[in-house]
Amino acid sequence: MCTLVETQLLLLLQLLFRWTTQALAQAPTPFTLPLKISPIKLNGASPRPPPLTASLAAPLGNESRERLRDVAAEGLALALDPTRGLVNFLPMIDNLQGDSGRGYYLEMLIGTPPQKLQILVDTGSSNFAVAGVPHSHTSSYFDTEKSSTYRSKNLNVNVKYTQGSWTGSVGEDVVTIPKGFNSTFLVNIAIIFESEDFFLPETKWNGILGLAYAMLAKPSSSLETFFDSLVKQAKISNIFSIQMCGAGLPTDRTGTNGGSLVMGGVEPSLYEGEIWYTTIKKEWYYQIEILKLEIGGQNLNLDCSEYNIDKAIVDSGTTLLHLPPKVFDAVIEAISHTSLISEFSEGFWTGSQLACWNYETPWSYFPNISIYLRDENSSKSFCITILPQLYILPILGIDSNYECYRFGISSSTDALVIGATVMEGFYVVFDRAQKRIGFALSSCAEVDGVPVSAISGPFSTDDIASSCIPGSPSKEPILWIVSYALMSLCGIVFLILISLMFPFCCVHCSHDPNLVNDESCLVQHHWK
Ligand SMILES: *[C@@H]1O[C@H](CO)[C@@H](O)[C@H](O)[C@H]1NC(C)=O
Ligand SMILES: *[C@@H]1O[C@H](CO)[C@@H](O)[C@H](O)[C@H]1NC(C)=O
Ligand SMILES: *[C@@H]1O[C@H](CO)[C@@H](O)[C@H](O)[C@H]1NC(C)=O
Ligand SMILES: *[C@@H]1O[C@H](CO)[C@@H](O)[C@H](O)[C@H]1NC(C)=O
Could you tell me if the CB of 99 is within 6 A of ligand 4? Predict the structure, then answer.
């Protein structure tokens, strides 16, 4: 294995030498291959770092927290909702912990007397569920027997995510969010009694808070979601916003990177500049419309519907940026071209290998990636840019002589997913009230004091189709109505004929409401 790698490296170096001598004249930056490509070991746990230094691990440390308080004292951190009065968002600042690899979670107190649980924040699903029995990968669980306020609804539920699934029963109980509200809320809660690949080793959470729309809720969309209950009972605006603060930081065993889930509005101290909004195209996942991708400033030039196959969503519960296969291939080609690392091992791009450099960060070799979104004002667009610090992810503890990195983008057949690695660059506003998602520069998206994300706009959309969503309604609705009507007529005639021929035919409906295809690809550090 080792010798193979070495020969490959030698070969690469030869190639590289030839190549660099040719290219030196026009290539301004020196270029280094990764010194080492290491296979990813997976003996139960992924390689994990020694504890980080405090300054690395706590981007919102003492100092900035104090700064935030100061801002608050001047009244800037109180967001005003004119219709419902003042909501104090200060307690919610820094109420999350975690990292992009294993998710960001929020502390909740459930039941009477309260039992403390850590709940993963997932905008790609819609059930609130907690471990109801001990599990080897969770430190605690919610014991319904010990809660005097728990009421079962005698409703079984099974939820499948892109990765992992669980089975449980639905009930209701009271919940408090200590870093959020003083009051208690009555919510639906699924008690998980059986699960597969859902709770993972090293995850610190023992429940999940699905923040997407009721349409995705199981067993049916009539089950009121946690956030809908919260909006009603806490009388907050129908809006929440998320800041995740793990940018550029190696994922850490202790999961101490911070973040904030602001329920009921937007907290000014968590972002800089202006918030750019794009429309939510359909209220199930947070589905948005992507118009264009640029790698290192170069347009990929794909048909814009390719970016939205079969949907483009914003999901805090997915670790990486997922791209449809065709887009993924184009991106890899563009990155390897722009990065001058065309000889990169295939395994790095597919996520099966890490690339390691010694005492050097490789970020300067990789291009920026820009994602263009249609502005809510549809004649314009804006663009969110992530720097390599957000998608070339440091992984500690592989080898003390090398700094190793994994690629933060992967291929996905059913969606483009703006996952946690991208979200870490932005303060993301889920404005359900106005059916739009906002992006602003996150105050914590910095590595060594340098911003790792950018937002710019407005841009013209003249060169872009009026809709990039595949299968969106045709422009001739009347023709469609006519054709549907004709089809239904045919169907009815056909059914009548059939029923005349087989008077005792029994129609069996095998629709299983529990079979779900909830695509929230729950947070994992699984190397495949
Ligand atoms: C935060 O500040 C307090 C008081 O200034 C100090 O005692 C504490 O050690 C600080 N904590 C960290 C993590 O720096
Ligand atoms: C809860 O109430 C106490 C006392 O009134 C107050 O100091 C605290 O900030 C409140 N917490 C939240 C989350 O509103
Ligand atoms: C990437 O984007 C940042 C922020 O807009 C910019 O400062 C930087 O020059 C860009 N890098 C490249 C290689 O274009
Ligand atoms: C669109 O932009 C125009 C001009 O900037 C503004 O007046 C208008 O309110 C915007 N419309 C929406 C729906 O935001």
Answer: no
Q: Which residue has the tokens 């471990």?
A: 131
Indicate if ligand 4 lies below 6 Å from the C-beta of 289: no
Is-catalytic flag, 122? yes
CA-based R_g, the chain, Å: 25
Q: Which of 36-40, 125-129, 301-305, 400-404 has the lowest mean pLDDT?
A: 36-40
53 φ/ψ angles, rounded to the nearest 5 degrees: -75, 155
Query: Is residue 512 annotated as a catalytic residue, yes or no?
Result: no
CA pair distance 214, 432, nearest whole angstrom: 12
3-class SS of residue 376: coil
Ligand nearest to the CA of 95: 2
Measure the CA–CA gap between 467 and 490, rounded to whole angstroms.
Answer: 32
Number of domains in the chain: 2
The total of other beta-carbon atoms located within 10 Å of residue 460's CB is 9
Range of the domain at 55: 31-60+267-473
What distance in Å separates the CA atoms of residue 181 and residue 431, rounded to the nearest whole number? Answer: 20
Q: How large is the average pLDDT for residues 233-253?
A: 84
Is residue 425 located within the same domain as residue 410?
yes
Burial letters 420-451, b for 16+ CB under 10 A, else e: bbbbbbbbbbbbbeeebbbbbbbbbbbbeeeb
Which is the closest atom of ligand 1 to the Cα of 54?
13
- Residue 400: which H helix or E strand, with range? none
Contact assessment for residue 260 and residue 95, using Cβ atoms and an 8 Å cutoff? yes
Mutation choice for ligand 4 from 377, 382, 459, CB with most ligand atoms inside 8 A: 377
pTM: 0.76
296 and 424 in a common domain = yes
**Alpha-carbon distances of 494 from 490, 491, 498, 501, 510, rounded to whole Å:** 6, 5, 6, 11, 21
Res 47: pLDDT: 32
Residue range 441-471, pLDDT digits in tens: 999 998 888 899 999 999 999 989 989 998 7
301 and 425 part of one domain: yes
CATH of the domain at 303: 2.40.70.10
CA 259 to chain centre: 14
